[in-house]
Design a protein that fits this description.
Number of helices: 5
Oligomer: single chain
Number of strands: 2
Helix content: 55-70%
Strand content: 5-15%
Order of helices and strands: HHHEEHH
Strand order of the largest sheet: 1-2
Largest sheet: 2 strands, antiparallel
Length: about 130
């Protein structure tokens, strides 16, 4: 299991931080399809947050198609979200990020370079 770090000083909600770190763990292959996550109680104790916060994060990740809740194994990484839905969500998020960059005079080549760099960092390319 990857090490999860919660920034208690951040304005970002704790459950959102937890969701984002688990998603990054999947993207960077620190977490894989079929991996079990700690129980709600165990994870809450490990990182010093409320069990309801962990429960909310797991519920959001389940709803977004990143994990399933198994009676015996608990929260399990299960990427059942179809690719078209993933691409649609990415498009919405990227559109806003690109619009912000364009407003600050970031050009097409710089955007492509940044996307390639991020992809390479996440997927372990050179």
């Amino acid at each position: 299991m990857m090490i999860l770090k919660i920034d208690f000083e951040s304005e970002e909600a704790l459950y959102v931080q937890l969701c984002n770190q688990i998603i990054m763990g999947i993207a960077t292959e620190m977490l894989h399809e079929g991996d079990s996550l700690p129980s709600v109680r165990q994870l809450a104790d490990e990182i010093g947050i409320n069990m309801h916060t962990v429960n909310k994060a797991y519920a959001v990740l389940k709803q977004e198609g990143f994990l399933r809740l198994d009676r015996r194994r608990g929260a399990v990484i299960a990427l059942d979200m179809d690719k078209l839905r993933a691409l649609s969500e990415m498009k919405d998020e990227l559109a806003l990020a690109i619009a912000r960059g364009v407003c600050r005079n970031v050009n097409r080549a710089e955007i492509h370079q940044l996307v390639d760099q991020i992809y390479d960092e996440l997927c372990g390319q050179d």
